[in-house]
Prior knowledge:
The structure holds two protein chains of two kinds.
Chain A: E1 5-8, H1 12-19, E2 25-28, H2 34-39, E3 47-50, E4 59-61, E5 67-70, H3 75-79, H4 82-87, H5 89-96, H6 101-106, H7 109-113, H8 120-123, H9 165-171, E6 175-180, E7 183-188, H10 189-192, E8 211-217, E9 226-231, E10 242-251, E11 254-263, E12 270-271, H11 273-279, H12 286-296, H13 308-326
Parallel strand pairs in A: 1-3, 2-3
Antiparallel strand pairs in A: 4-5, 5-8, 6-7, 6-8, 9-10, 10-11, 11-12
Helix pairs in contact in A: 5-9, 11-12, 12-13
Chain B: H1 14-19, E1 34-40, E2 46-52, H2 54-57, E3 62-67, H3 78-81, E4 88-89, E5 99-100, E6 106-112, H4 115-122, E7 126-131, E8 146-147, H5 154-157, H6 168-173, E9 177-185, E10 197-202, E11 208-212, H7 217-228, E12 235-238, H8 254-266, E13 270-273, H9 276-279, E14 288-296, E15 302-314, E16 317-318, H10 325-330, E17 333-345, H11 358-376, H12 380-386, E18 391-392, E19 397-398, H13 404-415, E20 427-429, E21 432-444, E22 450-457, E23 462-465, H14 475-487, E24 494-497, H15 514-538, E25 553-556, E26 559-562, E27 569-571, H16 572-579, E28 583-590, E29 601-612, E30 619-629, H17 636-655, E31 661-662, E32 667-668, E33 686-691, H18 714-726
Parallel strand pairs in B: 1-13, 11-12, 15-17, 23-24, 30-33
Antiparallel strand pairs in B: 1-6, 2-5, 2-7, 3-6, 4-16, 8-17, 9-14, 10-11, 10-13, 14-15, 18-19, 20-21, 21-29, 22-23, 22-28, 25-26, 26-27, 29-30, 31-32
Helix pairs in contact in B: 7-8, 11-12, 11-18, 14-15, 15-16, 17-18
Amino acid sequence: MINFQYVQATDVADAVRQTDGDPRARFVAGGTNLIDLMKMEVEQPTRVIDITRLPLRQVEPTPSGGLRIGALVPNTDLAYHPLVEERYPVLSSAIMAGASQQLRNMASTGGNLLQRTRCAYFYDVATPCNKRTPGTGCSAIEGLNRGHAILGTSQACIAVHPSDMCVAMMMLDATVHVTGPTGDRVVPFADFHRLPGDAPQRDTNLNPGEIITAVELPPKGFASHHTYLKIRDRLSYAFALVAIAAGLDLDGDTIKEGRFALGGIAHKPWRDPKAEAVLRGQPANAATFTRAADVLLRDARGYKYNTFKIDLARRCIVRALGQAARATPQSQSHKKIA
Amino acid sequence: MAGYIGTSQSRIDGVKKVTGAAKYAAEFNAPGLAYGSIVASTIAKGRIVHIDTSGAKRVPSVIDVITHQNRPSMADNDKAYKDDVAPLGSPFRPLYDNRVMFNGQPIALVVAETSEVARDAASRIRVEYTEEPHVTNLFQQLDATISVPQPTNPSEAVFTPPSARGTPEQALASAAVRHEGTYYVPIENHNAMELFTATAVYEPGGKLTVYNKTQGVQNVQRYVCGVFGMKPEDVRVLSPFMGGGFGSGLRPNFEVVLAVQAALALRRPVRVVLTRPQMYALGYRPAMLQRIAIGANSGGTLDAITHDVITVTSQNETFFRQETGWSALLYKSANATYAHRLARLDRPTSSDQRAPGAATAVYALECAMDELAVALKIDPLDLRMRCYSDRDQIRDRPYSSKALRECYAQGAAAFGWDKRNPAPRSMRDDGDLVGWGMATGVWDATQMPITVRIALSAIGHAEVACATSDIGTGTYTIMAQVAADSLGIPLENVSIKLGDSALPPSPVEGGSWIAASVSNGIATTAAAIRENLLQIAKTMPNTPLANVGPDDVALAGGDLVSRLDATRAVAIVDVMQHGGIDRIAQEKTTSPVQDEDRAHNTHSATFAEVKVDEQLGVIRVARVVSAVAAGRILNTKTAASQILGSVVWGIGMALQEETLIDHRFGRVMNANIAEYHVPVNADVYDIKVIFVDEPDDSNPLGVKGLGEIGLVGVAAAIANAVYHATGKRVRDLPITLDKVIGVA
């Protein structure tokens, strides 16, 4: 543990100002990840800025027909929001696939984007970890890596991003609205999280002092053909081995547009335009889905304990796209796989 | 004597528990209470060269930092550290010297005015070590195993492998059908809900009252006296409630030593609560690697069993149980041989965990029997019936009772086993592969010497006192039920005192023996009270009980009444008035009747249905039927809860549980209950519990105990169901989906 300064921010500008350029300042909203990490001495903030009073709790339709989600909207409220359930059911489903009811009640939308990896070495300060302490080495590459990445890894880090919600947002082409010392900007979801490269300590492309204010969903929600399929080591309250958010736009049996993003296999929600291109104009069947899976996984690489994930991911892609095509999305309460 | 025994009774302490009135070890306060936070080693083996405590001591409100360099005086011989259930060897001594014997070992205790400050300061302690090479991987020690020590007395002999019989090698070689397999169960931690805690209250004059999470308050009392050279009258240990033990609280754990060290050093009350990760530095179910071979003749009866196991222990102690005792006991086989070797690891000493030995070894036996049934092309249940033995196969003696046949029959009927298609991958439901598996369970029915005090008042209130623990199983409630029936008073007129070392002696609560021990203990003491009343009653003028013998009276409805003639009765209040007393107290010790000519066991049959997604390997345990033969059931509600909990545990053992160690660091890497998986509600579907009738005369009440039997065989039934569903045999637990994916 470490002593830190606790301050409350009154509005977004105040929150940004209070970071004061300090890279060890942290915003706290639900606290469902940050507080754990502080107890484990992984996060050692100098200043914790409480942003729970900021006016970022609205879910509002946008003029273009999309949806703007305030950064402080709790996961539970978002999952059960009528407009989300109606227009973006894959997002509701992804949120309900994650964590537990108690955690979802506390966790915020913005905080969910900033969840840190569950790699056991990252969490244990007694072991080397480049993400926690750059330059100390990656314990997972030669260690217990059953839950680790098969795509986009580096010599420095093979950790995975743990969020379910982000996988659906990635599939939906969401954008992240950010305010910082130099003003506002909008970051495409695909550019928000980073691959580890040689700087695994950086999970995202947020700059120091920047705060997430909202996530915006474009109009297209794939409400009729979608699914969120999460495979894990027990039937609830476990992080994904492989998860997939899928959406199809069908003309009869022909795919006009197909999208799918995967969780649990990379340092960021993983989406591949080349794999989605395989779907376009093709019949919605297992052969098509398998070809798309093979493209997405073409560079997949397994480590000692996680090679099975390559095969599992391929099977999940085929199954999930099939669920979406049949309009039988995976239920998150009934655990039989649709 | 009937009324409450055998009925469904809610816990008498249930309201206290759900309202928070039941106080656990971390909830007892004392003026001036200080808080200890443990600093744990980050290496697996070596020496502490230097501990820099200056950063911790600079934190305001830190009182002291206790290390091996400034701890209070402690005993210097192993004997002093041997608790009642210590294994052979040299027990770990917390903060004794600079040696590090396992990763996560406590090496310092920071004591502060608040727990937050203590924890903060603990993070500021810097330690320098000299490291030594360590081994924490069983598979690296396979060439260096040792055989379990030869027993030096009968109590040790119960833990050594059964003697061989016949000529197993030849029988195996000539068997018509053989199955051989290697099965593996990893290290599993207990993960009880309540964290281990000790609140040591230093009293003026140097006496200690210690509130400790433990399954044996008197064991802890003797241990503290041994370690710190104190007198029994100066140490009182209390554990009125316990949030789950499962064997992890049989031995005193290091938190009690640390709390007492600090309390003695500082002469003030100190509380030490382990963090969840620190719980993984305690005892654990030893990993078991086992090779089992069974040979059968074409008629489907066994000719030979060989069962060799390797388990793990620490470098300093030699913990083992009679792992092969169950495979030796259960099935008829003229030829058999058993072996047990140990691998020493640089880890804490392994320990008892729910059905120790049986849960792991019967898992292998029952999977092997399933594989043999497949080889023989006969139904797995049919194979068990053909190999059924009415005699204990180790010592060739009858059982006091064995209603396993009824377990098979009633369990199979409730499950619908007769509708099973024997071919693997033959049954489906809505696209899922369906598998049905079954297994047998066996455990001990043991009774231990115990002392119970009862004080009965003239107006019919009873206080029942015994130092036993209620580790969450419902001991309070069954004690009250037995006392109420024995004394003929309403349940709500009974108050129970337990979990206090000052109460009459009890063994540790373990081995499923407390229900039988304490219930018969209560009956004995109640009989003494009855006799006492009768003696007084006989002196009353015109007494109607003049010629009635002590066995011919009962206590019922506030009267002392003849069993032969209910009109001959006197009111207890009148008896006491005549005797000039307002209460009668008796304290009696009850020991089990020596009955070595018969075996005493509980049995079970578990039937499990799994549904497996053929493409993705996701396994759901859709249905479990557990039929249990455990003598007389004292309370059908708390008993069923024990079995339900066991089945849930078995689901975890089969599919989820594994303590993951990074052997480079010798360190547990999933030391929390988010990453160490046990079943959540979503993993648990329909579970049906059946208790079959099993009259038993081993003790007056016919009680056997059932805290452990419900677990034995569950993992095997599920593993066998997974095979039946998928056609794939997985012999190493847990059966995670990667082991069955791709069966399509």
